[in-house]
Amino acid sequence: MSKSSTEFPLQFVAVVPAAGVGKRMLAHCPKQYLTIENKTVLEHTVERLLSHPAINKVIIALGEHDEYFAQTSLVNHRQVKTVTGGKERVDSVLAGLSAVDQQQYPWVLVHDAARPCVSLGDISALISHCLAKQSGGLLAAPVRDTMKRTTVTVLDENQVSATVEREKLWHALTPQMYLVNELKSAIISGLSNDVALTDESSAVELAGFPSLLVPASSENIKITHPDDLALAAFYLHKQKNAKLQEQ
User: Fold this and answer.
1) N or C: less crowded end of the chain, CB within 10 Å?
2) How far apart, in Å, are the Cα atoms of 226 and each of 26, 140, 222, 233?
């Protein structure tokens, strides 16, 4: 049987922006090249995406002076293509989208390089919802904690200015899935209007296209701070054990 399943008649491409330097990690190298069990975070992430039956290509947007990718197992991977990313995440995503063959892949999934713990089930749910509604969308997790808005005083001390109603708040995760032409158009429009685009959904929203929220596991963390690396290692180990028990 081919990698494509009857559940997903289409094949999909994923774009992974990986040109960031990850300053908040305070590490010796960009966070996507930190290791978990002798494998870089980027390798974990890309291998997770390619293990999904509907994803058969990943385009990685690398930094112009990337010194680490050539040392990974992905460098000669037949399902991996690299492009040169940009200064901001959105620039890297646009570079990746420009390398997509829209005839072969009308839809694209954009996924953070530092999210190695996304589950295949959540990816399937995203694809299924988007195709069923013929609408783009993103994985998201509902906010559980009480949210506070702050104001910064003249002493640069954060003080609470308001409590934000959490019932309608969600944590935006990735992958985020959209039609390639719509996402490219939305990003180009946002950049031309000098709008800060923090993720694909923000570009799509501003362009007036619909965007679905698809509930997903909170294990799909983004490695941003040093403590996150240990948490990601824990989740990956937990998921590996769960898969072994299913076999």
Assistant:
1) C
2) 8, 23, 11, 12
